[in-house]
Amino acid sequence: MKFNTGESGEVDLRDVVWRYEIAVPLRDPVRFPQFYLDSWPTIAWDCGFDVAPESLYSRVTGKETSQEKI
Fold first, then answer.
1. How many domains are contained in the chain?
2. Which of 12, 41, 44, 49 has the greatest number of beta carbons closer than 10 A?
3. Domain membership flag for residue 53
4. What's the rounded Cα separation, in Å, for the pair 26 and 55?
5. 64: domain range?
6. In what order do the strands lie in the sheet with 50-51?
7. pLDDT tens for residues 4-38?
């Protein structure tokens, strides 16, 4: 992932995909990459599961932040 702060890195979402029932379809490696950015912009999937950019930023950088800084 690359953020508008210039920071970038990879994020592993296996833990959340296996934690939440709504994410069960994303356990299929064919479906997982079929995401889109919604209007917030949040990474989302057609099954209704999404991951907020703040969460992704924190996972990539190890920093806590507010939405305005991303």
1. 1
2. 49
3. yes
4. 18
5. 14-69
6. 36-37, 43-44, 50-51
7. 889 999 999 999 999 999 999 999 999 999 999 99
CA 20 → CA 4, 8, 14, 25, 70, distances in Å?
Answer: 28, 26, 10, 10, 25
Residue carrying the six token digits 């970038």: 8
User: Which tokens is 13 given?
Assistant: 């979402």
Specify if 7 maps to a domain: no
φ, ψ at 19 (rounded to 5°)? -85, -35
Q: Write out pLDDT tens, residues 54-68.
A: 999 999 999 987 655
H helix or E strand, kind and range, residue 19: helix 14-19
- 55 within a domain of the structure (yes/no): yes
User: Has residue 9 been placed in a domain?
Assistant: no
